[in-house]
Amino acid sequence: MRDSRPQSIDILFTVLATPERQTLQQIQQRAMALLKLNQAVAALLPAPMKPWCRVANFRQGVLVLETANASWMMRLRYEQSGLLSALRAQILPSLSSIDIRINPTLATKGHLMTQNSSDRQKKDRGEVVQRRRLSPQSAEAIRHLAARSPEKLQKLLERLAGLAGEGANPTRRGK
């Protein structure tokens, strides 16, 4: 009879050592090293930059950082020399340079992180966090505009007007 109890993934990496699993173990170790490096870099960055930057890779003495857009890239370049010297002193003595690249997907993640953070701060202060809602008057104005619009735009405007008063109700949005 087979033993089908849940097992820790570490057991798969260490006990069952075959050439394929050694590759998996190397990937896991590299991912863990990059996560720790990302945490160290985030600790050295100024607070406003943390959601917008992350470690992408470290190879041949070059640390590759990703940032959300060109403006964050410029701000990170101002911090680059201090970051380089701090990382050399604390973690990576073999670090020769830092390469900064733009990754637009970080823009959406960073925006969500900062929005959630500000909402959390408002809740901690006792403030009510309100999301924007479309008023019934605005919905009526949009429907009036949709009546005079081309068919494709008309459908989109009517869909937008249908969101009035719903707030964040996900059950009605797909209809």
TrEMBL record:
InterPro entries: DciA-like. Residues 119-130 have a biased composition (Basic and acidic residues). Pfam families: DciA (PF05258). Residues 112-145 are annotated as: Disordered. This is DUF721 domain-containing protein.
